[in-house]
Amino acid sequence: MALKNINPTKTNAWQKLTDHFNEVENINIKDLYKDANRKADFSLELNDLLVDFSKNRITQETINLLVELANEVDLKDAVEKQFNGEVINVTEGREVLHTALRSNSEDPVLVEGKNVKPQIQTALRKIRSFSNKVISGKWKGYTGKSITDVVNIGIGGSDLGPDMIVESLQYYKNQLTTHFVSNIDGDHVSEIIKNLNPETTLFVIVSKTFTTQETITNAETIKNWFLKSATIFDIPKHFVAVSTNLEAVDNFGIDKANVFPMWNWVGGRFSLWSAVGLSISLSVGFDNYRALLDGAEEMDLHYRNTDFDKNIPVILALLSIWYNNFYGAETEAVLPYTQYLKKLPDYLQQAIMESNGKGVDRNGDKINYQTGTIVWGSTGTNMQHAFMQLVHQGTKLIPCDFIGYKESLYGLTDHHKKLMANYYGQMEALAFGKSKEEVHLELKFSGDEDKIATLLPFKVFEGNRPSNSILFDKLTPHSLGKLVALYEHKIYTQGILWNIYSYDQFGVELGKELAKKLLNKQ
Ligand code: F6P
Questions:
Q1: pLDDT tens per residue, range 248-290
Q2: What residues sit in the active site (predicted)?
């Protein structure tokens, strides 16, 4: 059965939320914090994860009404349909089963009547055995040397996910050096190959369709570069592919034994959990890769089985809708306080904006309410010296997700204390600001009384700017999997509430078609 088709703005809950918004629009987080239980009442825990959403412009009534909205559009039904493998990607006629890829349960998941779990297990075994061979040095290149470098050739979901995870898990990396080639810009591939030794490099071509212009062009360029020193008979030792298009892979010259499967029921931007994540497993070893999957599964089970008012991805999705659709916020910032997660905002841009950037509802009608948030961000503390001025004192409302870790990986506690002081300091500054009275006193006591008249308005922080604290114990493959799955479920939840299809991406096609036409004219 298809997903339900309910215009959220026509629900009773939406009407109640509109009335409620008119009442609470000007509430102040500072006032809400007069309640001693505020933090405890608006925090959720999931083992090593603590999400504190107390610094939002919400009351318990706001949460109750947002949950009512989720119930009225039957989010529960949509969640079950996704996990059960129903064709919820209706416009492309596909199931959406990235959750099955990380499931440890024996329960079958059926696609066209066939359980997909055995295929997933076979693929995982293949990833493990191949990764072990390459990492241990048993896999030899065409001159008998072990592999030292791995190059992932892909774009979009076939690049951003693996690249972000490999970067984030640098601490857990082995001796292999991993590179990512994505852009059609020939300077990108040239920069990557210029220092590589063809004898010791393994190329992983990742393309679900194996027709993507960027990936195939880069793969051909690299193959030609490789063949300057080797022969076509050496290709099997240096080129492997991840794809659904076996014929095109075969035509490229890749050995059938070196093809890792992809499935139509896994969307590109949700595919790092499949063999698309091969470069992750090569980079940090299969056990760490499995831990990443297990972390995601922990979030899956929480999402599927927890009441909405205690459900972390659902609460974050509802808050986002509250700001997007009621306060008119257009963007959201993702601010990880660890340099390891510097690629997370880029990754989330595809996941969120390719999924929910839709202007037509599940009925095919043009939508007259806001969907799809614009997401952006960078790591703390660097961004405090870059764009945070606008977030603190600008005219725009920008809800922020602060992502932090209680422990650092190398244990430089002095650095970590300072990092986390900034993490909490930023959220406090955003929420509570600095009043005229405070600025007045500050200037007075610092001996700048004469400057009060000229400086005071510029030094005031209005505050009342919302943020969430997403705090893990430590950055591990497991906690990273959990974090990524959290955002995936937030995306789907919002898509359901907005009555759109989150899993297609027709909006990327027209530009591609026109580029092809222009190319043919040249
Ligand atoms: O940008 C559009 C898109 O289809 C993405 O959804 C996908 O991740 C990317 O292109 C790459 O596609 P493929 O894996 O088929 O090369």
A1: 999 999 999 999 999 999 999 999 999 999 999 999 999 999 9
A2: 354 (proton donor), 385, 512
- Is residue 335 a contact partner of residue 477, using CB atoms and an 8 Å limit? no
Closest by CA to 101, choosing from 276, 279, 295, 293, is 293
Q: Where are the alpha helices (DSSP H) in 349-451?
A: 355-356, 388-393, 413-432, 436-445
Summarize pLDDT for 408-438 with one digit per residue, the tens: 999 989 999 999 999 999 999 999 999 999 9
CA of 216 to the centre of ligand 1 (A): 12
pTM (predicted TM-score) = 0.97
Minimum CA distance residue for ligand 1 atom 4: 268
Please give the positions annotated as active site. 354, 385, 512
Take atom 16 of ligand 1 and give the residue whose Cα is closest. 207
Which among 508, 509, 510, 513 is the best mutation to test ligand 1's pocket, defined by most ligand atoms within 8 Å of the CB? 508
Instruction: Give backbone dihedrals phi and psi of 397, rounded to 5 degrees, phi first.
Output: -90, 115
Ligand 1 touching residue 355 (CB < 6 A): no
Q: In CATH, which of 3.40.50.720, 3.30.1360.120, 3.40.50.10490, 3.90.550.10 is domain 8-33+56-93+306-508?
A: 3.40.50.10490
**Residues contacting residue 164 through CB under 8 Å, at least 6 positions apart:** 341, 343, 344, 346, 347
Write down the domain spans for the chain.
8-33+56-93+306-508, 113-288
CB distance 433 to 466 below 8 Å: no
Q: Is residue 208 in contact with ligand 1, taking CB distance under 6 Å?
A: yes
- Does residue 218's CB lie within 6 angstroms of at least one atom of ligand 1? no
User: 113-288, what's its fold?
Assistant: Rossmann fold (3.40.50)
Residue 34: CB atoms within 10 A of its CB come to 8
- Find where tokens 């030899």 sit: 140
Helix or strand holding residue 376 (H, E)? strand 374-377
- pLDDT surpasses 80 at 1: no
Let me know if the fold of 8-33+56-93+306-508 is the same as that of 113-288. Answer: yes
Q: Report helix, strand and coil shares of the chain as percent, to nearest 5.
A: 55, 15, 30
Q: Answer whether 181's CB lies under 8 Å from 151's CB.
A: yes
Judge whether 464 and 431 are in contact, CB under 8 Å. Answer: yes
CA–CA distance, 349 with 355 (Å, rounded to integer): 9
Residue 165 pLDDT more than 80?
yes
Ligand 1 near 157 CB (within 6 A): yes
Q: Of 444, 208, 207, which Cα lies nearest the Cα of 220?
A: 207
Three-state SS sequence of 178-192: EEEECCCCHHHHHHH
pLDDT at 71: 98
Pocket test for ligand 1, best of 160, 209, 213, 510 (most atoms within 8 A of CB): 209
